[in-house]
Structure formats: C-alpha cells, structure tokens
Amino acid sequence: MMVDPILSSGISTSSYLPIVRNNSNANSQVAKSLGRLSSGLRIQTAADAPADLSESERLRSIISRYESAISNSDNAASYMSTADSYLQNISDTLGRMQELAVSANDGTKTDTDRAALQAEFEQLQGSITSTTSGSAPLASFNGSPIFQGDAKTIAIGPDSGQEMQLVAMDLTSTSTQPVGNDSQGAPIQWGTIISSDGSGISISSQSAAGAAVEQLGAAIDYLSSARAQIGAQYSSISSNTEGLRNAQMNSISRESSIRDLDYARETVNLVKFLNLGKINRGILAKTTGNLLATA
C-alpha cells in the first residue's frame, strides 16, 4: 500500500500548496516583466488594463488627427505665402503700368511716343493675364489655380467642423470683380485692368492715359487690401498650427504615460519576483528533500 509522502512527513497540504502557487505566480510575473521590458510597453494586451487601453487608443486617434490638421495648416500657410508672393509681383507690374500711364498723359508726346508706351503696357497686361488666367496659370499651388475665384476650405483641427475658408480672389482677365470706383462713381472691374484685347484700359491717347492712372491706382489699392487680408489669415493659421502642435505634444505625453513602460519600476518588479521565485524554489527543494528522507 502506497503512503502519501507529504502526509507521512507531517507537512500539511494547506502549508505546501501555497508555496507551489507562490512559485508559479512568481514565474508568471517574471515572464510578464521580461515581456514588458523587451517591448517597452506597460500594456501589451487588453487584459493588462482594459480602461487604460481604451483611453490610450482614443488618444492615439486624436494624435493622428492632430498630425493631419497640422499638415493641412502647413499647406494652407504655404498656399497663402505663395499667393502673397504673386500678389506682390502683380502689384509691382501694376505700378509699372501706372508709371507708363503717367508718362503717356503728357501733351508734349507724339502718337509715336504713346504707341511705344502702349506696346510695353500691353505686354505687362499680358504678363498678369498669363499669371492668373487660363487653364494653366503661372499662379498655382499643387496644380490648383490661386486667383480664379475658387473657394478653398481646410480642416484646421482634429474634430468635425473645425475648418477655415481661405481668401478667394478672381483676378482673371474676364473677372467682373469691382476694385473701386472712378471719379464718376462707376465701378472699375478687374478684368478691364489687365485685358489687352481692346476691351481693357489703354494709354494710346492722353485722355485714356489719364483715366488709366486713376483705374490702376484703384487696382493697386485693391491688391494692397487683399494682401492685408491674406497676411491676417496667414498669422491666424500660424498661431493655430502652433496651438495644434502643443496640443498634440500634450496628448502624446499623456498617451505615453498610460501605455509606455516605467523601466525603473519594472526592473524593480523583475528583481522582486526573481528573488521570490528563488526563495520559493529553495523552500520547495528543502521540503522535497525532507520528504524523500522520510519516505
């Protein structure tokens, strides 16, 4: 008849089994600590911390949306900067056209003199037209025309409804956009400023040159006002981008505190459970030796 060595040794099962369980638990904790240390993550599966994992995943989604909004804002800032550069060039061209108009508004000049001035004037009109008009204007951003009146809206935040509409301008040769009024109170349309097909302004006569000086002045003032709007919007976008970056960094920090591992703490835990396992195995070995000796 076989005799249970544990019972025959006088060691109760209630005393022996906790040591076995403690040893098994220590081995399990050592395995978990090694897994965390090797991955750098405190949460490796949903079972580790369900509520924390849910918050971490939500923050990761927000962080990704912040990244997209920052990219959009950077694109918008580049778009506005490009638009402002072209407006500066167009304004400089209008300034030269106004100089020519003032020069043509001179009774001592002959028709031949004005014809030469008119030729340069038309070239400058054509230069602006090629910049803003047609199917492939020079003034474009990422293949999209800048000055053809298309309203462009961008998402500037991580959530729905956080959008901004960029300044839209129609500076094509067929634009009916009013840029001001002449001395008679009649509206001055942008298209007439840059059209060189006979429907626009000219300086071929002294009277036409005098009128052109006034109209070009209104166009220059209009562009100056538009550039001020673009500058204000650029500043707003830059400020918004900085805010998005700060918010994203705070979200990254919070997500990291939830999910990432505290190496110092986990190393302490690893050493703790290694020592506990060693102690438990020593007790089990001694107990087993005693059992064999009394068997």
Fold topology:
Layout: H1 5-8, H2 13-39, H3 50-104, H4 111-132, E1 140-141, E2 144-145, E3 153-155, E4 163-165, E5 178-181, E6 187-189, H5 190-194, H6 206-259, H7 263-294
Antiparallel strand pairs: 1-2, 3-4, 5-6
Give a verbal description of the structure.
The protein folds into 2 domains: 5-40 and 263-294; 71-257, f41 fragment of flagellin, N-terminal domain (Up-down Bundle), CATH 1.20.1330. By secondary structure, the protein is mostly helical. The radius of gyration is 39 Å and the shape is rod-shaped. The relative contact order is 0.16. Helix content is 67%, strand content 6%. It is built from 7 helices and 6 strands; from the N terminus they run ααααββββββααα. The protein has helices at residues 5-8, 13-39, 50-104, 111-132, 190-194, 206-259, 263-294, and strands at residues 140-141, 144-145, 153-155, 163-165, 178-181, 187-189. Mean pLDDT is 85; it is low at 1-10. The strands form 3 sheets. Strands 1-2 form a two-stranded antiparallel sheet. Strands 3-4 form a two-stranded antiparallel sheet. A two-stranded antiparallel ribbon has the order 5-6. α3 (50-104) packs antiparallel against α4 (111-132).
